[in-house]
Design goal:
Length: about 775
């Protein structure tokens, strides 16, 4: 391996020493260094050869071998001395060991003789007691005989011992037959020959001595007799054995147990646990019967729950009596092959799905009352009742969650397993249905009662949207609390399967739809005012005459809708959300109307600028009745939205003579070098085509020397040809439809008031007026406005 690597190592060394062409000039130094390394290697080789010769010297090897031989001799000598010492110790202790063996044998012999004497004495006593039926004394003697049998069994090869063993075994069988007769007399309970309970109590002591199998036989016989009537009366195939008679089962057993406690419990030794075994046997028989009954079908859910509740009460009562869990009461019963723990109530778990299905049906019936026309009429009734009561929610939502809470409490009393998780899925299902078929259905418009002939919106839809929004918010919050309660009630391993996040998302979407409905109604209310803007001959105005007539209608419509929203929405954050979007909507529609009304001329632009101030004051008043109470962020948001329109109008109303001054004013207010944006201003201003070329030339000349101008501004996204995007009486305008999209009308939602930090500073600098399709200006289009 080393030989194979040598060429590679040599090449690596050459590469290191001669890394570049300049290394060739140092070849003498490199050669000298290599010579020194060669000398070092030769010296190392010579040293290693000397050590090898010294280690392989025959004289030295002979010395080492002699030392090893001497060491082996010393080891052998030590072994011999150790053997001699061991022999001496054995000779010294041999007598002691013999004495120890003799002592142990003597002790065992004395113990055996003593046990033999005791066995004969105990057997003699037992033989004498048999005719007397003194079972208490008989139990003591028999216990001694039984205990002495085992250690003396190896001596049965001796004839005398074998004779005693056979006689004692015969007497034991005699005693067992006598006890069996006494117990049978007790079990028959013949009124003509009543048993002597004292004799039965003492006979039970003898049973205890006779062994576990016989004791188990006696206990089984007693319990079988006690439950014989139960098996006859409550057969699972008879009427008395059905679910509705489960409480009767437990009542019957309590009577039997009371008789046992009063009359028989004291007859048996406490260690037999006859009472516990009686309860366990009854529970096992009941469990088998109920399994058969439930296997044929549950039937009435209320009967099922009553039977389960009676079973739980029964188990709880006996758990308290024995001061242990009920599954420990039933463990180790007479018929159990192992100590497997179980309860009677556990047999209900696999059938509890019927209860959950019943709740599903109950919810379906409940939901049918909230759907469709009945839901609409109920909603209108609620709106009428709460006309002056302020914000409220749909009563159906509180009824739904009250039902959820009651159902969960009832279910959790019986189980914390899979049925609770299944119930959670049922809850989620009906929350989704409630959202889709009740809340969203309430927002659907009815064409017959939509707008009046004046184009005004119906505030009933705004009120409905407010109530639905409040209800959706209540449902979202309450569903979170319900989720926490469910997770507290269910087993740990099932908690991850429980959640209402999808349903809360649906309620959130419904709240957004409610806001959209309010904005739609606001837009409908403002339509006549926007139509008036289009009808006004702005280019022909001769002077500014205060606020325009349409402003009164516009401000009145905005205030009417805003007042309805403020007084009916419970959460301020949704009032603010509505206000933010309303600002974007109104400014978008206003800007759209202004663009459609071009050319504006100076007086027209000045009049519209004055109108914008009135609209701005109204918009500042949206979240709260007094603008001074509005947050700094909202004020900046409104100012930003109206400010862009105001800036555009200020540029339009500026005189174009001298042209240099007009261009400088554009650069100062707009701040961009965009030729297209400049053309938009000229188009809105209505500048004659003959004058446009001169203004354009000056604009190009001035902007070419100003490096501080931007390439774009808020005018970049301004659509100069919005078209007839909203047909009269259309169900929903693009301004509303585009609220959730990336393409909106000019300035609509270009900045939310939440984009401002609490101190009023801007969080970022997005493009003004949103992302609109860019305007491509042509002289042909402008010709129509000259």
């Amino acid at each position: 391996m080393a030989t194979a690597d040598a060429p590679a190592a040599a090449m690596a060394r050459l590469t290191t020493d001669f890394s570049d062409s300049t290394a060739l000039s140092r070849h003498q130094q490199i050669h000298a260094r290599l010579e020194l390394e060669i000398l070092d290697v030769r010296e190392e080789v010579a040293r290693l050869k000397g050590e090898l010769r010294r280690d392989q010297d025959p004289a030295r090897m002979g010395v080492i071998q002699k030392q090893i031989a001497h060491l082996m001799q010393q080891i052998n000598a030590i072994r011999e001395k150790a053997a001699e010492a061991e022999a001496i110790v054995k000779s010294i202790t041999q007598d002691v060991q013999r004495l120890d063996v003799a002592k142990r044998n003597l002790t065992r012999t004395m113990q055996t003789l003593e046990r033999w004497s005791m066995l004969k004495h105990a057997h003699r006593q037992l033989k004498e007691l048999i005719p007397t039926k003194r079972y208490r004394d008989m139990a003591s003697s028999l216990s001694a005989v039984v205990q002495l049998f085992e250690p003396l069994k190896p001596l049965t090869t001796i004839s005398e011992v074998a004779d005693v063993f056979r006689a004692a075994e015969a007497d034991r069988r005699t005693v067992q037959e006598m006890v069996n007769t006494e117990m049978e007399t007790f079990f028959r309970n013949d009124p003509n020959h009543p048993p002597d309970l004292r004799v039965v109590t003492e006979a039970a002591l003898v049973v205890d001595v006779l062994g576990g199998d016989y004791r188990k036989h006696i206990i089984e016989r007693y319990i079988t007799l006690q439950l014989a009537e139960y098996r006859r009366i409550f057969r699972s195939t008879d009427e008395a054995g059905q679910l509705d008679n489960v409480p009767r089962r437990y009542a019957w057993f309590r009577r039997v147990l009371k008789h046992h406690d009063d009359e028989n419990a004291a007859l048996f030794p406490a260690g037999w646990e006859v009472t516990r075994l009686l309860v366990a046997s009854f529970a096992e028989q009941t469990r088998v019967d109920l399994a058969n009954v439930l296997g044929r079908g549950v039937g009435d859910v209320n009967v099922f729950l009553d039977a389960l509740q009676a079973t739980l009460d029964f188990e709880a009562a006996f758990a308290r009596r024995f001061n242990i869990p009920f599954q420990d009461v039933t463990a180790g019963g007479l018929n159990s092959s192992s100590n497997t723990k179980w309860t009677i109530s556990s047999i209900f778990d696999s059938h509890f799905g019927t209860y959950v299905d019943a709740q599903d049906k109950a919810l379906a019936e409940m939901m049918s009352q909230y759907r469709g026309a009945r839901s609409r009429s109920s909603l209108e009734g609620t709106l009428q009742e709460t006309e002056n009561a302020g914000p409220t929610i749909l009563p159906s939502s509180t009824e739904l969650f009250y039902f959820y809470g009651q159902t969960l409490e009832q279910c959790s009393k019986y189980t914390n397993g899979e049925p609770v998780a299944k119930l959670a899925r049922i809850f989620a299902k009906w929350l989704k249905i409630y959202n889709d078929e009740v809340l969203l259905a309430a927002l659907k418009r009815e064409p017959a009662i939509r707008r009046s002939l004046e184009g005004r919106s119906s505030l009933a839809d705004v009120k409905t949207a407010c109530m639905v929004l409040n209800t959706a918010e209540y449902c979202a919050n309450t569903s979170m609390q319900l989720e926490d309660r469910l997770k507290d009630k269910v087993k740990d391993e099932l908690r991850e399967s429980i959640g209402f996040s999808d349903e809360r998302d649906a309620f959130t979407a419904t709240k957004a739809q409610c806001i959209a409905t309010m904005l739609r109604e606001l837009e409908t209310a403002c339509d006549p005012a926007f139509a008036a803007i289009l009808k006004t001959p702005w280019r022909d105005l001769e002077n500014v005459s205060g606020r325009s007539a349409y402003i009164v209608d516009l401000v009145g419509s905005i205030k009417e809708v805003a007042e309805c929203v403020r007084t009916r929405i419970e959460s301020k954050k949704y009032i603010r959300n509505f206000a933010d979007k309303a600002v974007g909507l109104v400014i978008a529609r206003f800007t759209q109307a202004v663009i459609k009304s071009r050319p504006l001329k100076k007086i027209g632009a000045e009049q519209i600028l004055l109108d914008v101030q009135a609209v701005k004051a109204c918009l500042l008043d949206l979240p709260e009745p007094h603008p001074e109470n509005s947050s700094n962020g909202y004020t900046k948001y409104v100012t930003k939205n109206t400010g862009q329109l105001e800036t555009m109008l200020k540029v339009i109303l500026a005189p174009d003579d001298p042209p240099e001054g007009f261009v400088q004013n554009y650069c100062l207010l707009i701040g961009d070098r965009s030729f297209t944006n400049f053309q938009k201003i000229l188009d809105l201003k209505g500048t004659a085509r003959a004058d446009q070329q001169k203004l354009v030339d000056i604009f190009l000349s001035v902007t070419g020397t100003k490096d501080d101008l931007a390439d774009t501004s808020f005018l970049t996204g301004l659509d100069m040809d919005p078209g007839n995007e909203r047909a009269q009486h259309a169900p929903q305008s693009p301004a509303i439809q585009n609220l959730g999209t990336g393409s909106v009308l000019p300035s609509l939602l270009s900045r939310s008031s939440t984009d401002y930090s609490p101190d009023g500073s801007r969080a970022d600098t997005p493009k003004a007026f949103g992302d609109f399709r860019r305007f491509v200006s042509t002289f042909g289009k402008r010709d129509g406005y000259m």
